[in-house]
Backbone:
C-alpha cells in the first residue's frame, strides 16, 4: 500500500471538446493562467492533453495535437511545473519529454501506437501511466461488455505491463489506471471502484480519473459537470483512504484538502 499521501494530477485539456471542461482552456493564454492557479493551489502534476477522448470523439491529426500541447508544455516548464503529457502518440510523447514532460499518460496503455513501448524504454527517467482501454473513443462504448469487470480490467492491464516490461521498461516506471468511462458503463465504473484492492494486487501505483465524469452525472442527476464536484471529492477521499497513488481531477484545492483530511484522520493509527 502507498504510504505517501495521494497526489493530485490537475487536468489541463487544451481541446475544444473534452468530457468536462471542453473549450474552457483551449486558448494558450487561458491554459497558462489556469495552470498558474493550479500551481498556486499545490497541484502535484499538470496533465496536458490535446486530444479529446470523450465517448464518440473523432481523432485529430498529429499536427493539430502538437500545436495544442507543445507550446503549453514549454511554458509550463518555465513555471517549474511537473508535467504529464496525455497522449496516445509516441511522437507527441517524445516531443513533450524534450519540452519538459516527466510523465506520459497514455489512455491506450500502448495499444494505440506500437512505438510507445520503445519510447518508454528509451526514457527511463520518465514515468508511464498505462490506462485500461479497448478501442478509440468513436467505438469504445460498443466494447463495454464484461463478465467480471474488475478481473478483466486487471488481466488486460497485466497484459499491457507484461508487454512493456518485455520490451525493456523498468517496472518502477509504471503506473496503472483502470480507465473509468473508457469502454465502461456507470455500473462498471462503480464495480471497479468497489474492487480497487483487486487491482492493487498487480503491485503498481494506481491512478484514478473519476472527476466530473458522466457516471457521476447519472448518480447526481446533473448535466453540468461542475455540479459533480461533491461526488468527485467523495471518491477522491475514499480512494485516498485505500492508498491509491494519485487522482486526476479538474479542481485542485478541494481534492488536496480532502486528501489532507483523510491523512489527518488516519494519523497514528
Ligand atoms: N480520463 C480522461 C482523459 N485522460 N487519463 C487517465 N490516466 N485516466 C483517466 O481516467 C482519463 C485520462 C477523460 O476525461 P476528461 O475529458 O475529463 O479529461
Residues:
Amino acid at each position: 500500500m502507498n504510504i505517501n499521501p495521494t497526489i493530485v494530477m490537475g487536468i489541463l485539456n487544451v481541446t475544444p471538446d473534452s468530457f468536462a471542461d471542453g473549450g474552457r482552456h483551449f486558448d494558450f493564454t487561458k491554459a497558462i493562467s489556469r495552470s498558474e492557479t493550479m500551481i498556486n493551489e499545490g497541484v502535484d502534476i499538470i496533465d496536458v492533453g490535446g486530444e479529446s477522448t470523450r465517448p464518440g470523439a473523432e481523432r485529430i491529426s498529429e499536427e493539430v495535437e502538437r500545436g495544442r500541447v507543445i507550446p503549453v508544455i514549454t511554458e509550463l516548464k518555465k513555471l517549474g511545473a511537473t508535467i504529464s503529457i496525455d497522449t496516445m502518440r509516441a511522437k507527441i510523447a517524445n516531443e513533450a519529454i524534450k519540452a519538459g514532460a516527466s510523465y506520459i499518460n497514455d489512455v491506450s496503455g500502448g495499444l494505440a501506437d506500437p512505438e510507445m513501448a520503445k519510447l518508454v524504454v528509451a526514457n527511463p527517467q520518465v514515468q508511464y501511466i498505462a490506462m485500461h482501454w479497448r478501442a478509440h473513443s468513436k467505438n469504445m462504448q460498443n466494447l463495454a461488455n464484461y463478465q467480471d469487470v474488475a478481473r478483466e480490467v486487471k488481466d488486460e492491464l497485466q497484459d499491457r505491463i507484461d508487454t512493456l516490461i518485455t520490451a525493456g521498461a523498468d517496472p518502477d516506471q509504471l503506473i496503472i489506471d483502470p480507465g473509468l468511462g473508457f469502454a465502461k458503463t456507470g455500473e462498471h465504473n462503480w464495480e471497479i471502484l468497489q474492487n480497487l484492492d483487486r487491482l492493487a494486487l498487480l503491485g503498481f501505483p494506481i491512478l484514478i480519473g473519476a472527476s466530473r465524469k458522466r457516471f457521476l452525472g447519472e448518480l447526481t442527476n446533473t448535466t453540468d459537470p461542475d455540479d459533480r464536484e461533491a461526488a468527485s471529492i467523495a471518491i477522491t477521499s475514499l480512494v485516498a483512504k485505500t492508498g491509491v497513488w494519485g487522482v486526476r481531477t479538474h479542481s485542485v484545492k478541494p481534492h488536496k484538502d480532502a486528501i489532507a483530511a483523510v491523512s489527518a484522520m488516519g494519523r497514528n493509527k
User: Anything to note?
Assistant: The pocket of pterin-6-yl-methyl-monophosphate is lined by residues 11, 13, 18-20, 53-54, 86, 105, 107, 129, 131, 177, 179-180, 207, 209, 248 (CB under 6 Å). The longest strand covers residues 7-13.
